Structures are given as C-alpha cells and as structure tokens.
Amino acid sequence: MQLKKIKGQISLAACALLQVTSPTAQAEDNQWDVDSAVLFYSEGDGRVSAFEPAIYAGRDLEDGDRIDLRVVVDALTGASPNGAHASSVAQTFTTPSGNSSYTTKAGETPLDETFRDTRVSLGADWTMEMDRLSRLALGANFSKEYDYTSLGISASYAHDFNNRNTTLTTSLGFNSDSISPEGSIPSEFMPMVNKGFAQNRESDTETKTITDFLVGITQIVDRKTIVQLNYSFGITDGYQNDPFKIITVVDAAGLPATGAFDAFNTGDLPYVYEKRPDSRQRQNLYVKTVRHLEEDVINFSYRYYWDDWDINSHTFDLKYRYQMESSYLQPHIRYYMQSAAEFHTHNLALGTDVNQTTGKVQVDYASNDYRLAESETLTLGLKYGIPMGDNSELSMRAEIISQAVTDDNVPAGEEIPDLDAVILQVNYSFVW
Amino acid sequence: MRIICLLFAIGISGTGCSSMGVEPWERDLLAKKSMRLNADYLDNYYDEHIYFSKEATSGGQGVGGGGCGCN
Which of chain B's residues have a Cβ under 8 Å away from the Cβ of A344? Predict the structure, then answer.
C-alpha cells in the first residue's frame, strides 16, 4: 500500500517537472480534471473591456498517454488609441471602414471607438509516453475572431535523467495567421483619407508565420525546490503592422499638417498608416523557481527578452502562496519594463521625415503604437482559494495593472495617458 | 544583464545536475499541486493573453498557444 502511494507521488512529481504536461493531474484513471474560469477585464477611461470564459479539461489515457483540451471565448469592446497624439487643436479621423469619421477634442488622446470583437480559441495537446523516461507532446491550436484567424501546431519532447531529477525539453511551434481588417489593409505610409473619398487600401488579407524553438532544463534542486531554465528563439515573417494605427505628420509648429496634406491630394488627412519591418527575430531567457516553505509556497520567475527591432524587456513575477488551515491567500506582484522599438516615433515631421513637396514618407519604418514605446507595467494582485470537497476548489483573483509610457521625448501636451486596468476572475476546478 | 543571465544558465547546468535532486521517497512536497511549475494554469493563460495585447514582448515559457489579432 505504501509502495503504491510512493509510486503515485513519483508519478505526480514527474508530471510536475514537465512544462509540456497538463496543469492538473490528480484525477484517477478515466476521470477528467476540469478547470473552469471567468475573467472580467476592464481598462479605465472607457477603453477596452473584456469578458472571457475559459474551460480546460485533461485526462490520462492508457499506456501513460494524456490528452488536454482548452476552449476560451473572448468578447471585447471599447476604445483603443489610434496612434495619433493629443493636439492643441481638434482632430478628425476616418473610421477603418472609410464610411464615417470621428472627432477628438483638443488636448484629448484620439481613440478609435469602433473596437469590438469576439474571439474563440481552441487548443488540444496529446502527450505520449515514448518510454519510461521520455514523452512526446503534440499540440494544435486554432483561434478565430472577426478579422483574424490563427492556426498553430507544436511538438515537444521531454527526457528525464539523473534519477528523474532533471528533465530536458525541446519544443518547436509553428503558427500561420491571417488578418482581414474592416475596410481592407491600409497602404503603408499612405495618408488617411476623409470619408467620401477613395481610401488608400491594398489587399483584403495579409498573412504572417511564426516559428518558435525552445530548449529548457528543469531541475529538482532539493526536496523543496524546483528550478526551470528556458531559452527560446522565434522568427515572425510577414505582415506585422497594426492596420488601425496611424502616425501624425506635423508641421514646423508641431501641429497636424492639415492644409499641406490636403494640398498634396484633396481629401488627404495629415495622418499616415504605420509601417513595420516584415521580419522579426525574438529571443527569450526565462528562469523560474518554485520553493516550498514548510506550509507556504513561493513562486518566482524572471524573463529577459531581446529582438532585432531593438526591443528588450525585463519581467519579474512573484507569487507567495500563504497557506491557511484549508484555504490559501496568494499575493502577486509583477513588474515589467521594455525599451522602444528602433522605429518607434511619436510624430513624423513635414520637411524631414515627410517630403514637403510630395507628401511622401522618407523613413524606412515608423509606428507610434504605444506598445512599441519605452514603458513599464506594474501589476498587484491577490488570489483566494478554498477547497470545496476532496477534488474541487473555488478561487477568486483580483488584480490591478498600471502601465505607463516612460519615454521622455513626448512633446508637451501630447503625453500618452497611463493605462489602468482591473482583472476580476473566478475559477472552479473539479474532477469529473 | 544578458551576461548575468547567461552565467546563471551556465551555472545551473554546469554545477552538475547530478549533484542535485532527491530520492524517490523524498518527493512528498514536490508532488503537491502548488509545487507545479504551472500550478495556476488558467491564470497564466489569461495573463499571457493580456500582456501579449498590452506589451511588445511575449513568450519564454513555451511554444504555441495560439495567435491573436490584439497585437
């Protein structure tokens, strides 16, 4: 009996070592481990809100195999910055469809309020036990939203050695994505055009591929400590613009060069659609440790990221699970900081970045997507979990996110407002 | 910082994994759900999705997971 118990514990620990394995693995044979959740996400100032139910289910199969399934629905609504800065004058923009326009008051950050989408995401992983010490996991995922489709496959091989205290993992993933935005793909660096005029558009659809490779090592250090170290390399090829993002072309006074652009071509507005490189090479170094402190558990990770767009970032994530009699409290803090992409710019200057005679953009790439700017994000959260029986648990999580663009080069009066968001989440996990 | 990270990586792998670890009967704490590297699976999934849509960088924990038009 005791031997059987130890064997079960060994099996569970081995599963815990594998990042390719399932999140839950406590069910008996022929039972599903189910984890369900509902998340509500809301940004301040009437920006994006999201309602996101999700369900995960996994079960052991014969011969040590395992299947894991995931379904997530994501309903989004709200307003998103269109890339133009606030200005001391009112600004008028054309909606992506080209059929209508909206005006932003002087001093306010322009937001495109037509943002609305529903996304459905499906994922499946099948983990096969190759022999006593190695496993192969094959995965597939599919997501579909109004203007975006993503199809991906992945394979991951894990091998244990050193008395199953060390696991080496190699993974390969491939995604093929396509985007078909409202009003078609805008022409790069061409002006936004007033409604009622022919819009500067290219094809209806653009595509990109994402290839990722990862190698990782997971080590049991001692009876209370696990450490994981991953290195990953990825290449994204294809269309990487945000089709809804524009950049303001400003005159010598720093104001939108409205008159000049309309003179180039009647109906042109002083905003051009962004252009990013069509290739990006990304690298990550990720380390994580989980340590048991008699009753409590501390979970810490650090990620260093760098790419050939000149972006690098540091991410620190700390969770402390404070175990109470049967329930637990888990404070969470995450800190993130990133540098700007080399082509990130707040405005394009008429006469230098943009030809004063023709209105043509003279730089290779430019974007004023705030997500490519120098920024930092701080997240503070608290989770409370309580068992609801032998194999079920109810938990609630609340977090606040504060994001700020830390770039000092933003012209006065055009500062990008901080983003504040709230996460509320309820989970219920059980065995079925 | 990159150099520090690389040194850490080499340190972890080079100090001799064989000198670390436990015997099978010492895995009682490691077998707990709270000791899993991805214990909060759906929390982690949500977080990856949220930060992917708000920040320029992502990844590190694994490959795949599905694309999104949010960034």
Answer: none
